[in-house]
Amino acid sequence: MNMDRIKINNSQWYEKSPKLFKEEVRLMLTRYPQFKLGKLENGSIYWYGHIKSFLDDLRYTLMIVYAANHPFWQMGSSVRVYMIDPDPFDSSPKLSVLHPNETPYKLCSQLLSDIDGFYYQATWVDEKFPQPHSAVRELNLYLAYLFVRECAIKSRIIPLDWEILKKVYPSLEAKVNKLIYEEI
Q: How many CA atoms lie within 13 A of 99 on its CB side?
Protein backbone atom coordinates (compact mmCIF):
# COMPACT_ATOMS: atom_id res chain seq x y z
CA MET A 1 0.00 0.00 0.00
CA ASN A 2 1.39 3.38 -0.97
CA MET A 3 1.01 5.60 2.14
CA ASP A 4 1.88 8.74 0.14
CA ARG A 5 -1.46 8.52 -1.64
CA ILE A 6 -3.50 8.59 1.57
CA LYS A 7 -4.77 12.06 2.36
CA ILE A 8 -6.22 13.10 5.67
CA ASN A 9 -9.43 15.04 5.28
CA ASN A 10 -9.22 17.94 7.72
CA SER A 11 -12.00 19.99 6.15
CA GLN A 12 -14.73 21.28 8.39
CA TRP A 13 -18.49 20.90 7.90
CA TYR A 14 -19.01 24.63 7.33
CA GLU A 15 -16.58 24.54 4.38
CA LYS A 16 -18.46 21.62 2.82
CA SER A 17 -21.95 22.98 3.57
CA PRO A 18 -22.05 26.78 3.44
CA LYS A 19 -25.87 26.74 3.31
CA LEU A 20 -26.04 24.74 6.54
CA PHE A 21 -23.53 27.12 8.12
CA LYS A 22 -25.64 30.15 7.17
CA GLU A 23 -28.75 28.47 8.59
CA GLU A 24 -26.97 27.61 11.85
CA VAL A 25 -25.82 31.23 12.19
CA ARG A 26 -29.32 32.54 11.42
CA LEU A 27 -30.94 30.19 13.97
CA MET A 28 -28.48 31.01 16.75
CA LEU A 29 -28.58 34.77 16.18
CA THR A 30 -32.39 34.68 16.12
CA ARG A 31 -32.87 32.52 19.23
CA TYR A 32 -29.72 33.35 21.25
CA PRO A 33 -28.36 36.71 20.03
CA GLN A 34 -26.15 37.06 23.12
CA PHE A 35 -23.90 34.26 21.80
CA LYS A 36 -20.89 35.14 19.65
CA LEU A 37 -19.36 32.95 16.95
CA GLY A 38 -15.67 32.00 17.13
CA LYS A 39 -13.14 29.53 15.74
CA LEU A 40 -10.76 27.24 17.62
CA GLU A 41 -7.17 26.58 16.51
CA ASN A 42 -8.20 23.20 15.09
CA GLY A 43 -10.76 24.89 12.81
CA SER A 44 -13.84 23.92 14.81
CA ILE A 45 -16.34 26.72 15.24
CA TYR A 46 -18.13 27.52 18.44
CA TRP A 47 -20.64 29.84 20.08
CA TYR A 48 -19.72 31.55 23.35
CA GLY A 49 -22.19 33.36 25.54
CA HIS A 50 -24.12 33.72 28.76
CA ILE A 51 -27.48 32.44 29.95
CA LYS A 52 -29.20 33.82 33.01
CA SER A 53 -30.19 31.27 35.62
CA PHE A 54 -33.88 30.36 35.70
CA LEU A 55 -34.25 30.85 39.44
CA ASP A 56 -31.47 33.07 40.76
CA ASP A 57 -29.23 35.90 39.65
CA LEU A 58 -26.58 33.36 38.66
CA ARG A 59 -25.20 33.62 35.14
CA TYR A 60 -23.92 30.61 33.23
CA THR A 61 -21.12 30.98 30.70
CA LEU A 62 -21.48 28.36 27.99
CA MET A 63 -19.51 27.29 24.95
CA ILE A 64 -21.21 25.30 22.18
CA VAL A 65 -18.71 23.51 19.92
CA TYR A 66 -19.43 21.84 16.57
CA ALA A 67 -17.65 18.63 15.57
CA ALA A 68 -15.92 18.61 12.18
CA ASN A 69 -18.54 16.11 10.92
CA HIS A 70 -21.62 18.17 11.89
CA PRO A 71 -24.54 17.41 11.43
CA PHE A 72 -23.66 13.70 11.50
CA TRP A 73 -23.61 11.86 14.79
CA GLN A 74 -20.66 9.83 15.95
CA MET A 75 -20.60 8.71 19.58
CA GLY A 76 -23.23 11.32 20.43
CA SER A 77 -24.26 14.66 19.06
CA SER A 78 -22.15 16.65 16.63
CA VAL A 79 -22.74 19.71 18.85
CA ARG A 80 -21.47 19.79 22.45
CA VAL A 81 -22.37 22.21 25.25
CA TYR A 82 -19.60 23.03 27.72
CA MET A 83 -20.32 24.93 30.94
CA ILE A 84 -17.38 27.27 31.40
CA ASP A 85 -18.62 29.03 34.53
CA PRO A 86 -19.60 27.98 37.13
CA ASP A 87 -17.56 24.80 37.16
CA PRO A 88 -20.01 21.89 36.73
CA PHE A 89 -18.16 19.92 39.41
CA ASP A 90 -18.53 22.71 41.97
CA SER A 91 -22.31 22.93 41.56
CA SER A 92 -24.10 19.66 42.36
CA PRO A 93 -22.46 16.45 41.22
CA LYS A 94 -25.52 14.53 42.42
CA LEU A 95 -27.46 15.90 39.45
CA SER A 96 -24.78 15.68 36.78
CA VAL A 97 -26.73 12.64 35.54
CA LEU A 98 -30.42 12.77 34.66
CA HIS A 99 -32.00 9.36 34.04
CA PRO A 100 -34.75 8.78 31.43
CA ASN A 101 -37.30 7.66 34.02
CA GLU A 102 -36.98 10.89 36.05
CA THR A 103 -39.06 13.08 33.71
CA PRO A 104 -41.97 12.30 31.37
CA TYR A 105 -39.81 13.43 28.43
CA LYS A 106 -37.19 10.76 29.00
CA LEU A 107 -34.79 13.68 29.12
CA CYS A 108 -31.32 12.33 29.81
CA SER A 109 -28.12 14.09 30.66
CA GLN A 110 -24.65 12.99 31.60
CA LEU A 111 -21.38 14.78 32.19
CA LEU A 112 -18.80 13.34 29.79
CA SER A 113 -15.16 14.01 28.99
CA ASP A 114 -14.00 14.80 25.47
CA ILE A 115 -10.75 13.59 23.92
CA ASP A 116 -8.86 16.57 25.40
CA GLY A 117 -10.18 15.97 28.93
CA PHE A 118 -12.70 18.83 28.97
CA TYR A 119 -16.16 18.08 30.35
CA TYR A 120 -19.39 18.70 28.47
CA GLN A 121 -22.99 17.89 29.29
CA ALA A 122 -24.43 15.35 26.85
CA THR A 123 -28.21 15.81 26.79
CA TRP A 124 -30.69 13.82 24.77
CA VAL A 125 -34.29 12.64 24.73
CA ASP A 126 -36.19 9.54 23.74
CA GLU A 127 -36.20 9.11 19.93
CA LYS A 128 -39.86 10.16 19.63
CA PHE A 129 -38.74 13.74 20.28
CA PRO A 130 -36.74 15.83 17.79
CA GLN A 131 -33.06 15.03 18.11
CA PRO A 132 -30.39 17.74 18.21
CA HIS A 133 -29.08 18.58 14.78
CA SER A 134 -28.30 22.23 15.43
CA ALA A 135 -26.70 24.35 18.11
CA VAL A 136 -30.12 25.79 18.99
CA ARG A 137 -31.70 22.35 19.47
CA GLU A 138 -28.74 21.13 21.56
CA LEU A 139 -28.76 24.29 23.68
CA ASN A 140 -32.53 24.02 24.20
CA LEU A 141 -32.17 20.46 25.50
CA TYR A 142 -29.28 21.50 27.72
CA LEU A 143 -31.32 24.39 29.14
CA ALA A 144 -34.28 22.06 29.80
CA TYR A 145 -31.93 19.81 31.78
CA LEU A 146 -30.42 22.83 33.55
CA PHE A 147 -33.84 24.17 34.55
CA VAL A 148 -34.93 20.81 35.99
CA ARG A 149 -31.58 20.54 37.79
CA GLU A 150 -31.84 24.06 39.28
CA CYS A 151 -35.37 23.41 40.54
CA ALA A 152 -34.34 20.11 42.13
CA ILE A 153 -31.29 21.64 43.84
CA LYS A 154 -33.11 24.75 45.08
CA SER A 155 -36.02 22.73 46.49
CA ARG A 156 -33.71 19.96 47.73
CA ILE A 157 -35.70 17.32 45.85
CA ILE A 158 -32.78 14.94 45.37
CA PRO A 159 -33.17 12.29 44.11
CA LEU A 160 -35.37 14.00 41.55
CA ASP A 161 -39.13 13.45 41.85
CA TRP A 162 -40.89 15.01 38.84
CA GLU A 163 -44.39 15.11 40.37
CA ILE A 164 -43.22 16.86 43.54
CA LEU A 165 -41.04 19.23 41.51
CA LYS A 166 -44.05 20.25 39.35
CA LYS A 167 -46.02 21.09 42.50
CA VAL A 168 -43.20 23.24 43.89
CA TYR A 169 -42.63 24.95 40.50
CA PRO A 170 -45.95 25.12 38.63
CA SER A 171 -44.36 26.74 35.55
CA LEU A 172 -41.71 24.03 35.25
CA GLU A 173 -43.57 21.76 32.83
CA ALA A 174 -44.51 24.60 30.43
CA LYS A 175 -40.93 25.90 30.32
CA VAL A 176 -39.44 22.45 29.72
CA ASN A 177 -42.09 21.70 27.06
CA LYS A 178 -41.25 24.92 25.22
CA LEU A 179 -37.52 24.14 25.19
CA ILE A 180 -37.95 20.53 24.05
CA TYR A 181 -40.71 21.05 21.48
CA GLU A 182 -39.74 24.48 20.11
CA GLU A 183 -39.91 24.58 16.33
CA ILE A 184 -36.53 25.33 14.88
A: 8
E-strand stretches of the chain: 36-39, 45-52, 59-66, 79-85, 97-98, 108-113, 119-124
Cβ(168)–Cβ(155) under 8 Å? yes
Does the global pTM surpass 0.85? Answer: no
Q: Exposed, middle or buried: residue 81 (CB in 10 Å: 0-12, 13-18, 19+)?
A: buried
| 3 state SS of 122 | strand
Burial class (CB in 10 A: 0-12, 13-18, 19+), 15: exposed
User: Nearest 5°: phi and psi at 172?
Assistant: -55, -50
- What pLDDT, in 10s, does the model give residues 35-71? 999 999 989 999 999 999 887 778 889 999 998 888 8
